[in-house]
């Protein structure tokens, strides 16, 4: 029960940190941060993952080891089941809402693929925390029940260790996903294909390299394009810029910045 209490406390603090990260990521660009503050959410998501591992996983596992060594007196309390049952109901509602909101943006992929490809850690972090909370409640209920039936605190300690290991696995997965976004992960393949399609359809372009992209935030993508133009007289380069930008912004609203490197093909 103490392990689950720690788990719930860490989850509550994590949500507050995510709200802080979301708020900071929405700050407009300035001279010191010309590309904006979108990556703030990635930083705070990494902090959340570390807290889940260190506080949630570490203390829960420690509490389990203490139970195995100390063998505390077994006490039967129906309050444990009432608290766990109520928590399971509320966590189920939270998980349902988080899953529904997350699926709005990725309805056509399996859940694991959708999480790995997601550029919004706040959405899948909440989903994973809720899933871990539901499993943690089941671990706690199983440990308490077996301890009550056998009068052996061994099962209670094992349940606490299982909760700790569960949180550690979730934290490591979150660290892996957040790290890629924090150090400059590219946009999803679908975004690159959309841009390449626009470039292929423009008759003024003779060649282009694969677009270079970077995720500046959950809803902010930077794209750098290296193009070669056909040798046409009176080529209006500025008009070309504006035309391509307009099409790119129209096809994907998350693309906020487009950089061009253009040279005319020699004849």
How are the SSEs ordered, and which strands pair?
Blueprint (H helix, E strand, L loop, with lengths): L1 H24 L14 H31 L7 H26 L7 H7 L3 H30 L3 H29 L6 H13 L3 E4 L3 E6 L2 E10 L7 H15 L3 E10 L3
Parallel strand pairs: 3-4
Antiparallel strand pairs: 1-3, 2-3
Helix pairs in contact: 1-2, 1-5, 1-6, 2-6, 3-5, 5-6, 7-8
Can you give a write-up of this model?
This protein has 267 residues and is an alpha+beta fold. It folds into 2 domains: 2-182, Cation efflux protein transmembrane domain (Alpha-lytic protease prodomain-like), CATH 1.20.1510.10; 189-264, 2-Layer Sandwich (Alpha-Beta Plaits). It has helices at residues 2-25, 40-70, 78-103, 111-117, 121-150, 154-182, 189-201, 237-251; strands at residues 205-208, 212-217, 220-229, 255-264. Strands 1, 2, 3 and 4 form a 4-stranded mixed beta sheet that branches. Strand 2 and strand 3 (220-229) form a beta hairpin.
Task: Write a concise synopsis of the structure shown.
By secondary structure, the chain is of the alpha+beta class. The chain has helices spanning 2-25, 40-70, 78-103, 111-117, 121-150, 154-182, 189-201, 237-251, and strands at residues 205-208, 212-217, 220-229, 255-264.
Helix and strand pattern: HHHHHHHEEEHE
Q: Whole-Å distance between the termini?
A: 77 Å
What's the helix count? Answer: 8
Tell me about the largest β-sheet. Answer: 4 strands, mixed
What share of the residues lie within helices? 55-70%
Q: CATH superfamily assignment of the largest domain? A: Cation efflux protein transmembrane domain
* Apparent shape: elongated
